[in-house]
Recover the amino acids of this structure.
């Protein structure tokens, strides 16, 4: 598949999808070894390579191994007919054998780390720089999922890289640094007003938390007026339970002035 263009590889993978589905159905109980052999015999080497890629794409690497292998037969005692360790609640991703690559150089470009923490675009960070950036983000009150949001990364990108680095540190005999959040910090009245003004202008709580080395909960309490009540600046209005209920009644027809009720009235008048 290496000599194909991206379009050709995509077309081939699409053609192999029905074959992958057929093979999955056969293996899950609708066929036997002869049926599987017949499917594979009808494919050339390139198609088999594409089939492997498609089948791998059908597997969720974050699901527990026991769930991934749950379709396998059980013995007369009700146990899985696979090694006992496979029934653990580890994810499929945890079974991947990672190469014993050396850890990156410990040199850290603090300028690049600072730009990362503030949400600016940066070149690819080394493992040491990435870990330092994550430590600073967590120290500011962000969870790993918040870093994904800050960087606009797919879900669990930060968590997966942190887990990979933790394994490398453990294999090399090093103690992985603790990622923990500190206590609350205090803000000056000028900072409180600036935070509220930026929030009103459209800045998210995560962005403000990173800019002011705080956490989302503290920022949310500031912009909604729950903290620093005496300070000025625009206050974000919090929807009350009453307004939520009223909105629900307005939309769903539980009130006389709801859209549903008004719609029925218009239909009755037209009739």
């Amino acid at each position: 598949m290496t000599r194909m263009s991206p379009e050709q590889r995509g077309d081939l993978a699409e053609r192999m999808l029905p074959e992958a589905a057929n093979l999955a159905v056969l293996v899950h109980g609708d066929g036997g070894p002869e049926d599987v052999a017949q499917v594979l015999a009808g494919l050339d080497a390139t198609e088999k390579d594409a089939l492997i890629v498609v089948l791998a794409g059908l597997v969720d690497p974050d699901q527990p191994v026991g769930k991934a292998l749950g379709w396998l037969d059980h013995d007369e005692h009700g146990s899985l007919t696979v090694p006992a360790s496979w029934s653990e609640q580890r994810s499929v991703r945890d079974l991947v054998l990672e190469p014993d690559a050396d850890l990156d150089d410990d040199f850290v470009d603090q300028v690049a780390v600072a730009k990362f923490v503030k949400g600016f675009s940066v070149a690819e960070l080394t493992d040491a720089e990435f870990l330092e950036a994550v430590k600073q983000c967590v120290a500011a009150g962000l969870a790993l999922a918040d870093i994904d949001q800050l960087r606009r990364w797919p879900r669990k990108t930060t968590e997966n890289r942190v887990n990979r680095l933790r394994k490398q540190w453990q294999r090399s005999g090093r103690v992985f640094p603790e990622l923990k959040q500190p206590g609350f910090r205090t803000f000056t009245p000028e900072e409180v007003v600036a935070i509220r003004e930026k929030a009103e202008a459209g800045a998210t709580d995560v962005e403000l938390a990173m800019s002011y080395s705080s956490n989302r909960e503290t920022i949310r309490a500031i912009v909604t007026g729950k903290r620093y009540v005496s300070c000025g600046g625009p206050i974000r209005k919090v929807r009350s339970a009453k307004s939520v209920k009223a909105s629900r009644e307005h939309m769903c027809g539980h009130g006389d002035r709801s859209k549903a009720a008004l719609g029925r009235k218009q239909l009755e008048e037209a009739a």
Remarks:
- The longest helix spans residues 6-30.
